[in-house]
Write a structure and sequence with these properties.
alpha/beta
């Protein structure tokens, strides 16, 4: 008898972690809720959930008269989350007046530029663009 035949004839046992949890917690619904709770906790604990400005970006924004408001921070955070969902790592987040280069994994704004500078700029090393 071959090894495959021996294994095929053995009784099946639940060995996966999910199956054990299901048995212990009383069903799929309980396991689902437990896993969702873990995911929320992990997401809340992840560093970089809030967008931060590098020293360079902060000085550029100041030099160029770009106001860093709570609304702008929310827009940048939203852009970062959307880009992260698509797998982007370095994005250009822009509107008609200003643009920001953001490193998504580190949730850090690298630089800030105004509309005037955008006209003559070439953006390199980005893998996504998001409109604010």
């Amino acid at each position: 008898m071959s090894m495959i035949e021996k294994l095929a004839n053995q009784p099946r046992q639940q060995t996966s972690v999910s199956a054990n949890r299901t048995a212990q917690n009383g069903g799929f619904g309980a396991v689902l809720q437990q896993e969702l709770g873990k995911a929320k906790t992990q997401q809340a604990q992840q560093p970089g959930r809030d967008v931060a400005f590098s020293k360079h970006a902060m000085s550029r924004a100041e030099e160029r008269g770009i106001s860093i408001t709570p609304d702008l921070m929310d827009q940048l955070r939203g852009s970062m989350v959307r880009a992260q969902a698509k797998g982007a790592t370095n994005i250009l987040a822009m509107d008609a007046e200003k643009a920001f280069i953001i490193n998504v994994p580190n949730a850090r704004v690298i630089t800030a530029i105004t509309q005037k500078e955008m006209k003559e700029s070439v953006f390199t090393n980005i893998d996504g663009a998001v409109f604010l």
